[in-house]
Design goal:
With 254 residues, the protein is mostly helical. Helices cover 72% and strands 2% of the residues. It has helices at 2-12, 17-27, 33-57, 69-85, 89-109, 128-145, 150-159, 164-188, 204-227, 232-252, and strands spanning 198-199, 202-203. It has a two-stranded antiparallel ribbon with strand order 1-2. It is globular.
C-alpha cells in the first residue's frame, strides 16, 4: 500500500490520503476510523512535502493559487480535525464514502474536468470568496476525512483552467496546511491510554510502514514522468478511476 501511496502522491497530489485511510482502517480490522484519518494526515506531511519540493524545482506549481488560500485551508483544517474527534467512527466511514461518490459524479457531470473546450484551458484568478470561504471548506473537509484536500482542489483548479499536471502539482502544497494542522490536533488530542507506536490518534508505526514503500516510489515515478508525460485527458480519467476504486473498497468494508 505504501507503493500505491507514492504513486498517487506524484500523479494526483493526494499525498497518500486516499490510500492511507483505507489501509490503516483495514489494519485495525475496520475498527478505528479516527486512527486512519489521523495517520493519513501525518503521512501526507512527508509525501506532500517531497512532492512539493520536486514540483517547485520543475516550476510546475501554479503559485497564483497558493496565497491566501493556503492560510484559510490551514484554519479550516484545524477546525475539521477537532470536529472529527467528536464524530462517531461509523459516521466518519460513511461520510468518507459519500464524499467520494459526490466528487466522482461532479467530475463526470460538470464540464471542465474530463471534457474541456478551448476556453477551459485559460487560467482564471481566484475570487476573494473562493480564497477565503473555499479555503476554509477545503481545509475542514480534508482534515475531517483525512483526504488532504487534493480531491477538492484538483477538480476546482481544473475548472479554473489548469491542466492536470499543474492542478496535481499545486494540490500538494495546498495539502501541506491540512497535514500539518490536522496532525498537531490528532496527535495532541488522543486517548489517555496509548498503545506502542501510537501518539494521540496518529499510528506512527503504520505511517512509517507506508512511508517505507511510498518514498522510493515517489522518486521512481518522478523520474519516469520526466521522460514521458501523461496526456491530459488520460491523466484526468485515471484520477476519476482511482477515486472509484477507493469508493468501492471503502463501501464494502464494515
Amino acid at each position: 500500500m505504501g507503493v500505491v501511496s507514492g504513486v498517487t502522491t506524484v500523479l494526483f497530489g493526494f499525498g497518500g490520503g486516499f490510500v492511507t485511510v483505507p489501509a490503516v482502517y483495514l489494519a485495525t480490522h475496520g475498527g478505528d476510523m479516527h486512527a486512519a484519518v489521523a495517520t493519513s494526515t501525518a503521512v501526507m506531511i512527508v509525501n506532500s512535502g517531497l512532492a512539493t519540493l520536486d514540483s517547485a524545482r520543475r516550476h510546475r506549481i501554479l503559485a497564483q493559487y497558493l496565497w491566501p488560500m493556503a492560510l484559510f485551508i490551514a484554519a479550516g483544517a484545524a477546525l475539521g480535525a477537532y470536529a472529527a474527534l467528536s464524530a462517531p467512527e461509523r459516521l466518519l466511514h460513511w461520510l468518507f464514502v459519500a464524499y467520494l461518490a459526490v466528487t466522482i459524479v461532479d467530475c463526470l457531470a460538470r464540464r471542465g474536468f474530463l471534457s474541456r473546450q478551448a476556453g477551459d484551458s485559460v487560467p482564471h484568478e481566484l475570487t476573494r470568496a473562493e480564497s477565503t470561504l473555499g479555503g476554509l471548506l477545503v481545509g475542514f473537509v480534508a482534515s475531517f476525512l483525512g483526504v488532504g484536500g487534493s480531491v477538492m482542489t484538483v477538480p476546482f483548479l481544473r475548472r479554473k483552467g489548469a491542466d492536470m499536471a499543474g492542478a496535481t502539482a499545486t494540490a500538494n502544497p495546498l495539502s501541506l496546511p491540512v497535514a500539518l494542522c490536522g496532525s498537531v490536533v490528532y496527535a495532541s488530542m488522543g486517548p489517555a491510554a496509548s498503545s506502542p507506536g501510537l501518539v494521540g490518534h496518529v499510528n506512527f508505526a503504520a505511517g512509517a510502514a507506508l512511508l517505507a514503500g511510498s518514498l522510493p516510489t515517489i522518486t521512481i515515478i518522478r523520474r519516469a514522468l520526466m521522460l514521458r508525460a501523461i496526456p491530459d485527458a488520460v491523466h484526468a480519467a485515471m484520477y476519476v478511476a482511482l477515486l472509484g476504486a477507493v469508493l468501492l473498497l471503502m463501501a464494502v468494508i464494515r
